[in-house]
Amino acid sequence: MTNRRYARILPGSSKAEAKMTSEMLRAAVRNNALWCNSVCQAQGVPGEFSATLWLHRQGTPPFYPDVITLTGAGSAREQEEAIAVLIRSRKGGWGVKDSYAALTLTPLGFEILFEAEWIGIEAVEIHAPKEQSLTWKRITTAVELELWERAWGAGEPPQTTPIFAEPLLRNADIAFLAAFESEALCGGGILNRQSHVVGHSNVFAIKKRDRAIRAGLVQKAAEIFPGMPIVGYEHGDDLSDALELGFTSLGPLRVWGSPERLTEM
Fold this sequence. Notes:
With 265 residues, the protein is an alpha+beta fold. The chain has 2 domains: 14-119 and 252-261; 121-248, Gcn5-related N-acetyltransferase (GNAT) (Aminopeptidase, 3-Layer(aba) Sandwich). The protein is built from 5 helices and 11 strands. The protein has an 11-stranded mixed β-sheet with strand order 1-2-3-4-11-5-10-9-8-7-6, with helices on both faces. It is globular, with a radius of gyration of 18 Å. The termini are far apart.
């Protein structure tokens, strides 16, 4: 049955459309924070949620932020003050996902690592990709997960501790997927169903198959979690590819890092 929480509004109702976009944006932000918390929880150290922030006091795995803002500009001052207190609580680097691009963290010693756009697509707008040459497999064992992470992280320094722990595989709302062509791994991604949407992330492709991998991943999301909107965030060429597939831009975000964290995110 189609999830109508974010059902398309009829053309000509701009205020309603803006409201629906805003609702999907909030769901995308919440979904991403819940996903980051799931990654940390699988390692035995979950983060904390407040009304305006998700945060992790002990330090997160590489590529994952220590703080995610859950609300927009109206909470920016409160969030900046909370972050100022947090960064004094332990030494080392901090990463902040500024979900609404609303913070000014330069005075605290942060630099903008990159800017991106939240994206979303309604379930009814998802269509089967024209190219059907890929075979998809859901990762189900620790050995498969280790191989998947190694392929996803190709080109990055090897991690002493895996980022993705085995308990994630036992969560029915999370799916690690690998794509194969002629039995050779050529890409993959992660799906997570939380906050009434399906987040897609960690998309990777081998041999310049980026567009085909994303199209296939979105189709798999529609099969595994039918009727659910799909959200995520991208920038650069990946954003262009997503928009060509039918995703809509929901709003900007920034990722900030303190100097000690710049090489980790």
